[in-house]
Amino acid sequence: MEKRDMLYEGKAKKVFKTDDPDLYVIEYKDDATAFNGQKRDQIAGKGELNNKISALFFELLRSKGLESHYVKRLSDREQLVRRVTIIPLEVVVRNIAAGSLAKRLGWEEGRELPRPVVEFYYKSDELGDPLINESHIAVLGVATPEQLDDITTQALKINEILTAYLRARNILLVDFKLEFGLDAEGRVLLADEISPDTCRFWDATTREKLDKDRFRRDLGGVEEAYEEVLHRLGGQ
């Protein structure tokens, strides 16, 4: 497998073509962004940590029968993935009130939800990734009702698997963002990453934040928090 030209560079990753048209290489960057790119910095080692953490989660899900675009980890910063066409939706699953949900509901941060909440956001930098519902998705034509059902079912199953796995490691899965894509056969596959960049992780005992909120809220210790997550997952 030969890594070739860069296809795309996003906020946290670069995507490269390979000599196989159905396989890409993803390279994780140290760049950190928040508030739709308004806040930017670099965090030493973040790309390597996110790559390792994401790989561990993708491998866990695969062991439970849930496939994704992930094929294997190639190096400290690189993964080999299947080519998918990304569905322009950010799928957020919430277990505990935090961030924008706490503000919208008027709930104190940290209040446990009686059931998981699944939200959809339209992936559009120009529009600021707005919260949308199933009717909006139908009007926009970004996913069929069948695909949306598949996405929701997968998202809730992922939540069930990760919540139990992390709880055994004294980590609360507060909420997390997923992205999905369509492979060459039209199957809906989990894509992107699962890391402290895309999840809220709290220490189950102290409620200390172990995720990107440390960067968003200027709490410091971002790299140390990511390293702690990897350590608890057994990856370091």
UniProtKB/TrEMBL annotation:
<keyword id="KW-0547">Nucleotide-binding</keyword>
<keyword id="KW-0067">ATP-binding</keyword>
<dbReference type="InterPro" id="IPR033934">
    <property type="entry name" value="SAICAR_synt_PurC"/>
</dbReference>
<dbReference type="GO" id="GO:0005524">
    <property type="term" value="F:ATP binding"/>
</dbReference>
<dbReference type="InterPro" id="IPR028923">
    <property type="entry name" value="SAICAR_synt/ADE2_N"/>
</dbReference>
<dbReference type="InterPro" id="IPR018236">
    <property type="entry name" value="SAICAR_synthetase_CS"/>
</dbReference>
<dbReference type="GO" id="GO:0004639">
    <property type="term" value="F:phosphoribosylaminoimidazolesuccinocarboxamide synthase activity"/>
</dbReference>
<dbReference type="GO" id="GO:0006189">
    <property type="term" value="P:'de novo' IMP biosynthetic process"/>
</dbReference>
<dbReference type="GO" id="GO:0009236">
    <property type="term" value="P:cobalamin biosynthetic process"/>
</dbReference>
<protein>
    <recommendedName>
        <fullName>Phosphoribosylaminoimidazole-succinocarboxamide synthase</fullName>
        <ecNumber>6.3.2.6</ecNumber>
    </recommendedName>
</protein>
<comment type="pathway">
    <text>Purine metabolism; IMP biosynthesis via de novo pathway; 5-amino-1-(5-phospho-D-ribosyl)imidazole-4-carboxamide from 5-amino-1-(5-phospho-D-ribosyl)imidazole-4-carboxylate: step 1/2.</text>
</comment>
<feature type="domain" description="SAICAR synthetase/ADE2 N-terminal">
    <location>
        <begin position="7"/>
        <end position="232"/>
    </location>
</feature>
<dbReference type="InterPro" id="IPR050089">
    <property type="entry name" value="SAICAR_synthetase"/>
</dbReference>
<keyword id="KW-0658">Purine biosynthesis</keyword>
<dbReference type="InterPro" id="IPR001636">
    <property type="entry name" value="SAICAR_synth"/>
</dbReference>
<keyword id="KW-0436">Ligase</keyword>
<dbReference type="Pfam" id="PF01259">
    <property type="entry name" value="SAICAR_synt"/>
</dbReference>
<comment type="similarity">
    <text>Belongs to the SAICAR synthetase family.</text>
</comment>
